[in-house]
Amino acid sequence: EAGLAKADLVAAARRTADGVVFYDYDLALPATKCDDTLAAACLPSLVVLLSACVRDRQLHVLRVDASPDEWRRAGKALKALRSTFAVAAS
User: Fold this and answer.
1) Is residue 22 pLDDT above 90, yes or no?
2) Are strands 8-17 and 46-55 parallel, antiparallel or unpaired?
3) Which residues on adjacent β-strands are paired with residue 17?
4) 19-34 per-residue burial string, b: 16 or more CB within 10 A, e: under 16
5) C-alpha distances in angstroms, 52 versus 11, 19, 24, 85?
6) pLDDT tens digits for 40-69?
7) Residue 86 gets which letter from DSSP?
8) Which residues are 14's β-sheet partners?
9) In sequence order, which ranges of the chain are alpha helices (DSSP H)?
10) Contact 78/63 with Cβ under 8 angstroms?
11) At CA 35, angle to CA 28 and CA 80, rounded to 5?
């Protein structure tokens, strides 16, 4: 997606589940405007959590998008959700 090309990489991690290596990425698209209530802090316009793996020679990707409000309310829960992403053997 073209919009992701402008995203900042906030975090990256590697994890293994059921013998499969997963690559997790936290991306943040730049803010379109800053919230005056957050002195000098601008929340991203969109947070994108990705998890990717290859199993049985096929690429599998999970993408979770969160608006600034959703991220404030549920960021930890969304990261926990992503960590449960698994792909069963075919």
Assistant:
1) yes
2) unpaired
3) 20
4) ebebebbbbbbeeeee
5) 14, 14, 7, 9
6) 567 788 999 999 999 999 999 999 999 999
7) -
8) 23
9) 68-83
10) no
11) 40
